[in-house]
What we know:
Layout: H1 7-18, H2 27-43, E1 47-51, E2 59-64, E3 70-76, E4 92-94, E5 97-99, H3 103-122, E6 131-136, H4 147-156, E7 157-162, H5 192-207
Parallel strand pairs: 3-6, 3-7
Antiparallel strand pairs: 1-2, 2-6, 4-5
Helix pairs in contact: 1-3
Amino acid sequence: MDLTTRTPEMIALLKELVDIGSPTHERTVVNRLGAIVARETKKLGAEIEIVSKSDVGDQIIARWGQGPGAILLIGHLDTVYPLGILASMPFKEKDDKIFGPGVLDMKSGLVITLTAIAALQEADQMPARPITAFYNTDEEAGSYESREIIEKLAKEAELALVHEPSDPEGDLLTWRKGTGKLKSRSRGVLPTLAANMKKVLMRLQSWRSISLPSKI
């Protein structure tokens, strides 16, 4: 299946998504982006469910078909970039590459997935099993508002695909690392405290790969 003929429309949709800045906690603009994604999924015949949220943008569930054994597609609408970044970091094409806030993580993934579904429909090759797409709006903050929904949809699915960017070779990744935060409060007398804290951090670093602070 050759998707290269769809490149111009994919780039046009990507630009539309990128031109709407969508920081996690800017609910209004994230919902503007969500409206575009909902529009595109409706064009493809999906049934849309909106899960309203007050602190972050509304979550979107798009379904093609019902029943067991679904394929779950997961993507997020929010980015880490602040509002106003487009003035200094606009969408642009250069040397067969596309640049802009959220292009890689992960608005291009949203476009690729929507295009794949459109191509499968036109080729009459949609899977026999249902497809559910979930678009959350708080991934960059830890998916604290959407985790329960993700877990519920995942339990209903036979296969889950997250359309985050792959590695440079384009491989399908079967697992990703997580992240964690550690906060430590200590009391003591300098420099003894600093020396002991450095020993603790060195022990942690030998246990897991972490970055040491530049100053201790």
